[in-house]
Automatic annotation (TrEMBL):
Extent of Polar residues compositional bias: 57-69
The protein, known as: Orphan protein
Disordered: annotated span: 46-69
Domain of life: Bacteria
């Protein structure tokens, strides 16, 4: 997340209280981003469990490899 002075509300002459306000906004945005990321991870995990596992074709597949040309 990129926070720059251009994106923040104008608070000229606010001093330290402006910094606290900006930090509060940044924290709220990070929490929202974290919740969204967790929701995506949970959604991906639940859809992966719903898929059927891959079927094994044969147990001996790949045991004999011809390396002579």
């Amino acid at each position: 997340m990129n926070i720059s002075g251009n994106n923040l509300p104008a608070m000229s002459g606010a001093g330290p209280s402006g910094e606290v306000y900006s930090a509060s906004l940044a924290k709220k945005q990070q929490q929202a981003d974290g919740k969204a990321a967790l929701a995506l991870i949970e959604a991906a995990g639940s859809s992966a469990g719903a898929q059927s596992p891959a079927k094994s074709t044969t147990a001996s597949l790949g045991n004999n490899i011809n390396v002579y040309v």
